Amino acid sequence: MKYTAENRKTCLNIQQEVGPELPTPQPDLGSPPGPYTSAKDCVFKAADQAVLFAVRSWENTDDVTGAKSGNDRAKKYFTDRTEGWDRDSSTNVGSEARWRETRASACALEALDENAVLTVALTGGAEGEQCRATVRDLAKRFYAAMQP
Q: Residue 107 domain-assigned?
């Protein structure tokens, strides 16, 4: 498995690798409930904008319902959530990336990478293609910082 709870980095570690232009992360709040094995949410908040970086990952399981691949479970989660969203072929993060529906002063990109779904969202500040360009750049840097 590429992404596991054991090789998960802290938000502070991620911020240090991504770059000093990111504000100090909010305190780690733990994993929200969900159908994934492991979750990490990092919020980097400045006065006028916030950046969210989230990772949801699944491990292989074998129980009374049978063997399940973490990669297959991540792909199903990603596909079910993002059906109908705009695909992004220029980000080169993971095997597939899609844009959430655009909202005023906010945009978000989700990417499937093996057994994980990575989300980068920006609120406040830029809009439209300028927002997407900023998120694309951040997604590439977050992706590089998360590699085991």
A: yes
